[in-house]
Automatic annotation (TrEMBL):
<dbReference type="InterPro" id="IPR011711">
    <property type="entry name" value="GntR_C"/>
</dbReference>
<keyword id="KW-0238">DNA-binding</keyword>
<dbReference type="InterPro" id="IPR036390">
    <property type="entry name" value="WH_DNA-bd_sf"/>
</dbReference>
<protein>
    <submittedName>
        <fullName>DNA-binding transcriptional regulator, FadR family</fullName>
    </submittedName>
</protein>
<dbReference type="GO" id="GO:0003677">
    <property type="term" value="F:DNA binding"/>
</dbReference>
<keyword id="KW-0804">Transcription</keyword>
<dbReference type="InterPro" id="IPR036388">
    <property type="entry name" value="WH-like_DNA-bd_sf"/>
</dbReference>
<dbReference type="InterPro" id="IPR008920">
    <property type="entry name" value="TF_FadR/GntR_C"/>
</dbReference>
<dbReference type="InterPro" id="IPR000524">
    <property type="entry name" value="Tscrpt_reg_HTH_GntR"/>
</dbReference>
<dbReference type="Pfam" id="PF07729">
    <property type="entry name" value="FCD"/>
</dbReference>
<dbReference type="GO" id="GO:0003700">
    <property type="term" value="F:DNA-binding transcription factor activity"/>
</dbReference>
<keyword id="KW-0805">Transcription regulation</keyword>
<feature type="domain" description="HTH gntR-type">
    <location>
        <begin position="4"/>
        <end position="72"/>
    </location>
</feature>
<dbReference type="Pfam" id="PF00392">
    <property type="entry name" value="GntR"/>
</dbReference>
Length: 220
């Protein structure tokens, strides 16, 4: 049996509370820190589970107030996670190949100077962590989120948000491929520089090359 990811365990623990009626619509659930302590897991895993549940409109995150149960679970509350299990990493990467090069081009054209600087900042943080031998998954995800938001296209942003947890799995898996880490860092720096240079065609080409390179490595 495939071992569950930590955030899936958290997801199911929260789901169980809602399904059992312990947490009802309108109820405020414990904080990330409290759930982390109660379940004995890292805060990042709790945040990821909450993010997926909020995308499914089961939880509602209100900045500065907390997280609330938005609605009862349907008949298939784990449908999105089941889909995640069945989807191949190659399919996820091909989905990225369709969407992300255009996002990179759009943010190069329409992103604000502040947004462009943030994208470059996270690319450099990735490089810094890689050189130290540290995990840079958070910075990788943040880099791509900033590109999606800075592209100023609500439809594409909504598409990325809907499949956000699937793209998360794609990036996490790619980091397990040893040859990918160094190349990914290099590509991110180049993509960020092309975006900051306001060069949409170069940003598009580099993002496409980055994902094609990943697809090539996945076949071996």
């Amino acid at each position: 049996m495939k071992k569950k990811l930590i955030y899936q365990v958290v997801y199911e623990a929260i789901e169980k509370k809602i399904r059992a009626g312990e947490w009802k619509p309108g109820d405020k659930i414990p904080t990330v820190q409290q759930l982390s302590e109660d379940l004995g897991v890292g805060a990042s895993s709790v945040r990821e589970a909450i993010r997926i549940l909020s995308q499914q409109k089961i939880l509602k995150v209100e900045q500065g107030r907390g997280t609330y149960v938005e609605q009862e679970l349907g008949e298939k509350p784990s449908e999105q996670l089941d889909f995640l299990e069945k989807s191949s990493i190659e399919q996820l990467s091909r989905a990225r190949l369709i969407i992300e090069p255009e996002l990179a081009a759009l943010v190069a054209e329409d992103g604000t100077m502040e947004e462009l600087k943030e994208i470059l900042k996270y690319a450099r943080l990735m490089e810094k962590k890689f050189l130290k031998g540290e995990d840079f998954l958070y910075e990788d995800i943040k880099f791509h989120e900033l590109i999606a938001k800075g592209a100023k296209n609500d439809i594409l942003l909504e598409m990325v948000t809907i499949i956000g947890d699937l793209l998360y799995e794609s990036r996490k898996h790619s980091m397990r491929i040893k040859s990918q880490n160094e190349k990914a860092v290099s590509y991110h720096i180049l993509i960020a520089k092309a975006i900051n240079d306001r060069n949409p065609s170069q940003a598009r080409r580099l993002m496409k090359a980055h994902i094609i390179d990943l697809l090539t490595d996945l076949k071996y």
